Amino acid sequence: MSSSNNISNLNGQTANVLIVEDDAATRRLYKFLLLNGGFSILEAEDGVVALEQLAQHHCDIVITDMNMPRMDGLELIQAIRRDYEHIHVIMITAFGTPDTEKQALRLGANDYLAKPFEFEDLERRVQAFFQQRTKTNVNS
Fold first, then answer.
1. Degrees (nearest 5) of the Cα angle 14, 18, 23?
2. For 75-119, what is each residue's pLDDT tens digit?
3. pTM value?
4. Distance between CA 62 and CA 43 in Å, rounded?
5. What does CATH list as the number for 3-138?
């Protein structure tokens, strides 16, 4: 893939997306989808590893599952909002209810997807975030 297909962050670098998912096959699927969309991908199998990744790498978006060992997605959202408030967070869960969605958004998730969903919908939401942020900064 040529670099012209890459999505850039505000610094002109390829946008970094951290995928936090305990199921390795699902994580690979999300990674494949977003790599084809021009994003640079980081991976973590749970919230603890995700925070280690965030401490070492710049990240623009975190896509996190909710039910994971050691630190679940809701706890991760709280930690991200405390230490990395600029990061856009998308929560994904197979066990969602309207109350779960409200709780995730209240804790600081920017978006929420319930499984099953169309994989193109995830890519569209990630790209829409970068397009909106670019428009906002151009108009600032």
1. 140
2. 999 999 999 989 999 999 888 788 989 999 999 999 999 988 888
3. 0.86
4. 10
5. 3.40.50.2300
